[in-house]
Design goal:
The protein is 11% helix and 40% strand. It is mainly beta and 158 residues long. It has a 6-stranded antiparallel beta sheet with strand order 1-2-8-6-5-4, with no helix packed on it. A 3-stranded antiparallel beta sheet has the order 7-3-9, with no helix packed on it.
């Protein structure tokens, strides 16, 4: 008899919590235009850098609290480097979260970082952009001429 009462009490608590009104929450989305490195000279001694961006737009009510983080897929990585391909040819590159090129942007594992933000909405819709700093290291003389490409999945968790 005692066990039945405990179960009924637990179910009553769950039903009471389920009937509480939910608070309004912002809805967020991302936009990531393609990023191009331009021409890379595999015989030159210099690296090739580029800058792109990820834009997060959140809609909701003024005063809503927003908190999220952005991570990048690790698919297509070799060690710490990402890989662009042209057929069987490969070209290594990195994406950084800072303009000092010290924080490799990834999924938070293996020393990589994620980009996070939190704020209170001051309008019905708020957009914020986060730069992506791309770098192709110098000295990849094994590459051949051609168009190299890669896909990176950007994940927004809020």
């Amino acid at each position: 008899m005692r066990r039945t009462l405990k179960l009924v009490s637990l179910l009553s608590c769950i039903l009471a919590l389920a009937s509480l009104p939910a608070g309004a929450a912002a809805d967020c989305s991302i936009r990531t235009p393609a990023v191009s490195f331009g021409n890379y000279d595999s015989l030159a001694s210099g690296r090739r850098d580029t800058i792109g961006s990820v834009t997060v737009t959140c809609t909701g009510n003024t005063g809503d609290a927003v908190s999220y983080y952005l991570s990048l897929s690790t698919t297509g990585q070799q060690g710490g480097y990402r890989v662009m391909t042209n057929g069987s040819q490969q070209l290594n590159y990195l994406i950084f979260a800072d303009n000092g090129y010290t924080q490799v942007w990834g999924d938070g594992s293996a020393g990589s970082s994620v980009v996070s933000d939190s704020y209170t909405m001051n309008a019905h819709s708020t957009s914020r952009s986060y730069p992506m700093y791309g770098r192709i290291p110098a000295g990849q003389s094994q590459t051949t001429a051609g168009a190299y490409s890669a896909n990176v999945t950007v994940t927004l968790k809020y």
